[in-house]
Amino acid sequence: MASKTLADLLDPLTKPARLVEKLDKGRVRCFACAHRCTLKPGQRGICKVRFNQDGELRAPWGYVSAYNVDPIEKKPFMHFLPGADALTIGMLGCNFHCDFCQNWFTSQALRDPASEGSGRYIQTVTPKELVANALRNNAEIIASSYNEPLITSEWAMDIFKPGKEAGLRCVYVSDGYATPEVLHALQPYLDGFKIDLKCMSNQHYRELGGTLQVVLDAIKLAHELGMWVEVVTLVIPDFNDSNEELWEMARYLVSISPDIPWHVTAFYPTYKRQDTPATSARILQRAADIGQEAGLHYVYAGNRPGRVGSLEDTHCPSCNTKLVERSGYVIQGYHITAEGACPKCGEKIAGVWTDKPESVHTGGWGFPRSL
Ligand code: SF4
């Protein structure tokens, strides 16, 4: 008997989608992401993991391909309960096909034949088990990450609902290729949204599988809906690191709110982009200087721990007091008051902060823990 394909393994792990509009002749239109695929019976969406079965859109449900307890700084979120642990789950598939994806083996499942073996990571699990697991491990947050969470939003919402009832906060780590409908659907559950702003060139976005304006609009709408938004740009030499493009990104974020944290992080050669050199600390410093000069209050440099001066720390935008000291994912010092303010000048610091600052975990390893 022939061995099972990845699709054979994944297709049964689905439920009827809710982020869908029924059309005529058994066709459906998915709006879980901005591709808005219109699918006839038997067709798969661009993400490949959602598909029309006999006139019904099926959406992934009931499994993870990875789950770990990670420091929230790894997502990265710097203004969302620093030092807290996040039970982080991932599934398989993506709506983009970035040639520099660090998680390509799981994200490109069903899209890149080289990912066929990713099925071995599948573990079936229920929302109840995941929430219990988070509580047992003292995680304060559940994060949907590793692959693109938008394409499995029904699954995420079914975990986040009991998660929030149990007192957990919920976040997405996403490419931001979202429809307004999916953001509105997620709004009751989603406390934090980390969005990649990969570049300011629509042509480059098209090469990755999306369009620029959708992502710009999603950043704005998520912010307006009250989610805590942090934006990450993986700075890639000769792809998005010109001064002009960095200025454009920073100015756009300032136009929404100067309080949106902007992370400029270092690229390392990976997947199909092996010939581009890693991003130097000097390039990150230049990008951060641009962000600060543009008026952003909080700019961070990532993926080069210990090499970027104070760009891993949080400073008060009013008096420059160092409020959170970090080395990589490890919190070395925490000085934000229980009211979320600077202890020196009283300036309110934008973000989601603990009301028990004395309980913030400092020191330690800051590495993910497998479960
Ligand atoms: S999630 Fe996006 S790519 Fe997948 S079927 Fe829906 S609209 Fe298409």
Question: If you had to describe this structure to a student in words, what would you say it looks like?
Answer:
By secondary structure, the protein is an alpha/beta fold. The protein is built from nine helices and 20 strands. It has helices at 6-10, 104-107, 127-136, 153-165, 180-186, 202-208, 212-224, 243-256, 281-294; strands at residues 14-16, 20-22, 28-30, 38-39, 51-53, 56-60, 63-64, 66-71, 85-90, 123-124, 141-144, 169-174, 192-196, 228-235, 262-266, 299-302, 314-315, 322-327, 330-334, 369-370. The strands form five sheets. It has a nine-stranded mixed β-sheet with strand order 16-15-14-13-12-11-9-8-20. The protein has a three-stranded antiparallel β-sheet with strand order 1-6-5, with no helix packed on it. Helix 8 crosses helix 9. The protein is globular and about 65 Å long. The protein starts with 5 loop residues before the first helix and ends with a strand. Bound molecules: iron/sulfur cluster (SF4).
Indicate the topology.
Elements: H1 6-10, E1 14-16, E2 20-22, E3 28-30, E4 38-39, E5 51-53, E6 56-60, E7 63-64, E8 66-71, E9 85-90, H2 104-107, E10 123-124, H3 127-136, E11 141-144, H4 153-165, E12 169-174, H5 180-186, E13 192-196, H6 202-208, H7 212-224, E14 228-235, H8 243-256, E15 262-266, H9 281-294, E16 299-302, E17 314-315, E18 322-327, E19 330-334, E20 369-370
Parallel strand pairs: 9-11, 11-12, 12-13, 13-14, 14-15, 15-16
Antiparallel strand pairs: 1-6, 2-3, 3-4, 5-6, 7-10, 8-9, 8-20, 17-18, 18-19
Helix pairs in contact: 3-4, 8-9
